[in-house]
Amino acid sequence: MSRTHPSIAIAHWPGMGLFGEADLDRLGTLGTVLNTEPIGAWDDEADAVLAEAEVIVGHWGCPPLDAAMLDRAPRLGLFAYAAGTVKMTLTDAVWDRGIRVTSGANANAEPVAEFTLAAILFANKGVLWRRGPVDFSAMSAMDDLQWGNYGRTVGIVGASLIGRRVIELLRPFSHMTVTLYDPYVSTEEAASLGVDKLELDELCATADVLSIHAPALPETMHMIGADQLSALPDGATVINTARGPLIDHEALLPHLASGRLYAILDVTDPEPLPDNSPLLEMPNVWISPHLAGSQGTELARMTDYVIEEVRRWSIGEPALNEVTRDRLATMA
Asked: Which of 104, 145, 221, 279 is the most buried (most CB within 10 A)?
């Protein structure tokens, strides 16, 4: 399908300022921007925009595209989502009407992968756990083989967009071994990524750092449970930048309380944690408030990405990251 100069609607949480004037000007070179104030709900005030919209550019807080809403948007041909997961926004009615869907998950993967790389390097050096000024009377700690990045093994759980990017970012660190667990990736494909494919328990048993990048699906809930956590070597670090429920937190707690394992958790279960959660007080646990994804200047990458998707659709080019009904089932 090729549409020249389409009518473009913008939908996301109001007041977030996700598209600046320069961004709107760029969209305006591709089509007619119907609304500069984003739509936050498909209420009666949205009717005039929906009636004309051939493209909806969505972002965080875009309301779901259900059959009733799509009945009011008969010309819609592209839903270009600037952020990552579209699972809370899409319904089967979108696929039934042949609307192209794209996601900015590729763009949002980059800062998460960068965060993960930093977390891996800091975890192996013990940076987050060994705070304070240098103590020259205890310099024998420099000989502690618990710390250091040389010769370490990083186990990646999930060859998602983020997992693959983390593997790529680790490639220059030839002194590290990177292994992968992903039931959807063949041994040959893993080899092409430069990693060895292992079963999950074997990967855990050999990982100094376990980094989780699997999607949140019914079958992945608590995939890192008691058996996997017990298999991790003493002193290993668990990093989770995916979704909190992928780890069984009740099974994780005793390993952290004893000091056997370390954890860097950008996501938790529940999220946020209650004020009385023991995780908040443990010196071997680093918790960040779900900030690994795009924020600040990084939002511009997602904006660039979604504008490019609109350009490609308008001239009949393939999408950068098209989401299909079949693909959605295994996506985050």
From this structure: 104
Backbone Cα Rg of the chain: 22
Structurally, how many domains does the chain consist of?
2
Q: List the one residue out of 41, 32, 37 whose CA is nearest residue 61.
A: 41
Could you tell me if 139 and 78 lie in one domain? no
User: Which residue range(s) make up the domain with 80?
Assistant: 7-103+296-328
Run of H or E including 190: helix 187-193
- Looking at the structure, do residues 131 and 224 belong to the same domain, yes or no? yes
* Tokens standing for residue 288: 């960040």
Instruction: Going residue by residue through the chain, which has 332 residues, state the pLDDT in tens, using 9 for 90 and above.
Output: 458 899 999 999 998 888 999 999 999 999 999 999 999 999 999 999 999 999 999 999 999 999 999 999 999 999 999 998 898 899 999 999 999 999 999 999 999 999 999 999 999 999 999 877 776 665 555 667 789 999 999 999 999 999 999 999 999 999 999 999 999 999 999 999 999 999 999 999 999 999 999 999 999 999 999 999 999 999 999 999 999 999 999 999 999 999 999 999 999 999 999 999 999 999 999 999 999 999 999 999 999 999 999 999 999 999 999 999 988 887 77
1 belongs to a structural domain: no
Closest C-alpha among 183, 206, 179 to residue 195: 179
Q: Is 167 left (phi over 0), alpha (psi -120 to 50) or beta?
A: alpha
Neighbours of 305 (CB within 10 A): 22
CATH number of the domain where residue 301 is located: 3.40.50.720
Report, as residue numbers or ranges, the catalytic residues. 243, 271, 290
Read off the pTM. Answer: 0.91
